[in-house]
Automatic annotation (TrEMBL):
Lineage of source species: Bacteria, Pseudomonadati, Pseudomonadota, Alphaproteobacteria, Rhodobacterales
Keyword Hydrolase: yes
Protein source organism: Paracoccus siganidrum
Protein name: PaaI family thioesterase
Keyword set, alphabetical order: Hydrolase
UniProt keyword annotation of Isomerase present: no
Cross-referenced InterPro entries: HotDog_dom_sf, PAAI_dom, Thioestr_dom
């Protein structure tokens, strides 16, 4: 599949359309293999016990999958999540950013299916796995 939006284009799109996430989330890579997105973990993302909250990990996966789709179809702001499943597998490392490695499994005319594995920066074992289906609006 051809890449329509690289990491710089995706980050610019996010800054314009979703300024509320631009400070915390960033696309680091967009290529034929998929997307690598980063959550810059700070106090707002922590839960009691000093670990990253589930909603923060879910948001990272959602952003990575959304960007993986946009990287192929272009800046379609109204593509929306229609189904999501997340498995929390281990506690993220304290004091480290989270990285989501995302790949598209299917890109159709109206639906896209993708998965993301989330890792603590520098870690080798995933802390969560997420699969999502997105609805792509008609052109």
């Amino acid at each position: 599949m051809e890449i329509v939006m690289d990491a710089a284009a995706l980050n610019g799109f996010l800054a314009r359309e979703f300024p509320q996430v631009a400070g915390s989330y960033r696309v680091e890579r967009s290529d034929a293999a998929g997307i690598l997105a980063r959550l810059a973990v700070d106090e707002a993302h922590l839960r009691p016990g000093g670990t990253v909250s589930g909603p923060s990990m879910f948001a990272l996966a959602d952003l990575a999958i959304y960007c993986a789709i946009l990287a192929r179809i272009g800046p379609v702001a109204l593509a929306v999540t229609t189904n999501a499943s997340i498995d929390f597998m281990r506690k993220p490392a304290a004091g480290r950013d989270l990285l989501a490695e995302c790949r598209l499994l299917k890109l159709g005319r109206v639906l896209a299916v993708a998965e993301a594995l989330i890792f603590s920066d520098g870690g080798q074992d995933p802390v969560a796995r997420c699969s999502m289906t997105y609805s792509i609006p008609p052109k």
